[in-house]
Specification:
By secondary structure, the protein is of the alpha/beta class. It contains 6 helices and 4 strands.
Length: about 140
């Protein structure tokens, strides 16, 4: 986080069962932005992270039948903070669950997010692409 701040670069954070610690660290480093990769937290945690300017990365998990928490986050977080990602080789979306994940499966993640948010596929595809450019200062 110190290096990211010094170099004005984004960070990619994989927070797994450490939401409280992650939020504390993010708050310590104001001015550092980035992505919470493979987002697995609650809607309440997502609200706090987004307030601090972070993006949330969603994988094939959003397509799983038991992904109620993830669906709730996608429903309620503005599209401007959503990214799609593979976490290759893991977390392939339905209908490819259990297979080796790759970027060709992102269409299923985008489609599911579009359905959850009641938006056109193309709108979500374009928004997540542009969000990626913003997130990584491209």
């Amino acid at each position: 986080m110190d290096l990211a701040k010094q170099l004005n670069k984004p960070v990619v954070i994989h927070d797994r069962d450490a939401h409280e610690d992650t939020l504390k660290i993010i708050k310590e480093f104001k001015g550092v932005n980035g992505v919470l990769h493979c987002y697995s937290g609650s809607y309440e945690f997502a609200k706090e992270v987004v307030k601090l300017g972070y993006f949330l990365g969603f994988t094939g998990v959003v397509t799983f039948k038991n992904a109620k928490k993830t669906v709730e986050v996608v429903q309620n977080i503005p599209l401007e903070y959503i990214l799609v990602e593979t976490d290759c080789p893991y977390m392939a979306p339905e209908p490819n669950r259990g297979k080796r994940n790759d970027s060709s499966y992102l269409i299923y993640v985008i489609d599911k997010i579009a359905k959850i948010k009641g938006l056109d596929y193309k709108k979500v595809e374009e928004a997540t692409y542009n969000n990626g450019l913003r997130a990584f200062n491209i």
